[in-house]
Amino acid sequence: MCANINIAANTFNGFLNNNHDLSNGSKKIARIVKIIPVMIQQIKSFNNDSQNHVFTFIGIVNCIERNNNKITYEIEDDTDHIKSFKWLETGKISEPLINLNTYVRIYGHLREQNEKKCILILRIWPLIHLNELTNHLLEVTYVILKSQKMLNKQNKKSNTDNAFMIDDNFIGLTKEQSIIFNIIQAKNDSENGIERNVIKTCVPKSIDVDNIIDFLINEGHIYSTLTDNHFKTT
User: In what residue span(s) does the Replication protein A C-terminal domain sit (predicted)?
Assistant: First the structure.
């Protein structure tokens, strides 16, 4: 899950939201904010390149520390806990009342202090309805699945593009034959090679995969393995 949520930060733009006042009452951000919903364990898996992202998460307040210019909250969810802090400014509106052992939602940036990940709070408020917690969990799941789908699509396109870059005269094959040969060769490290239907999903429908496979077998370039529909290159 942590790997997938890292994908989310790099490939998925999050939820577009231009209605949230993330400045806690001072000035509204005059741009669309891209927000990525996460669990706390996932936050800790991010690197410093993610410090410009806006993350949102929900957790229970375990500890509150306050001094003249900063409030620090210890927040915990089902995956981990993290310190989140908010700088106080004189002349600003009062902070929302946050109590121990209650659920809160936080919007903030990832920061690192003393080699530990923490959150710079843009806005924090107590949950009114637990339905918001359920919605948050669904949003986290959606981002992970959406990001994985995007990554798979990118990998598929990359594999196809690489296949089309093969020299047309490679081992005396035509361009289309070379494409199929290269796709099969890329799976030689797997136990049974690659299956016929999988090959068909990697190339345009205009390529006659079945005839090319028959040709490659007859010419001794590939051979069947587990079944007549699984192949490796020689």
Answer: 152-228
Q: What is the pLDDT along the chain (234 residues), one digit of tens a residue?
A: 444 445 444 444 454 444 445 555 444 444 445 788 999 998 888 876 666 789 999 999 999 999 888 999 999 999 999 999 999 877 665 677 899 999 999 999 999 888 889 999 999 999 988 899 999 998 888 887 877 777 766 666 565 555 555 444 455 678 888 888 888 888 888 888 888 888 888 878 888 889 988 988 888 888 888 888 888 887
The architecture CATH gives domain 175-233: Orthogonal Bundle (1.10)
Separation between Cα atoms, residue 214 and residue 94, nearest integer Å = 75
Q: What angle do the packed helices 2-11 and 131-164 form, to 10 degrees?
A: 70
- Distance CA(76)–CA(24), nearest Å, equals 22
- CATH code of the region 34-151: 2.40.50.140
Contact 40/59 with Cβ under 8 angstroms? Answer: yes
What is the spatial distance between Cα 62 and Cα 60, in angstroms, rounded to a whole number? 6
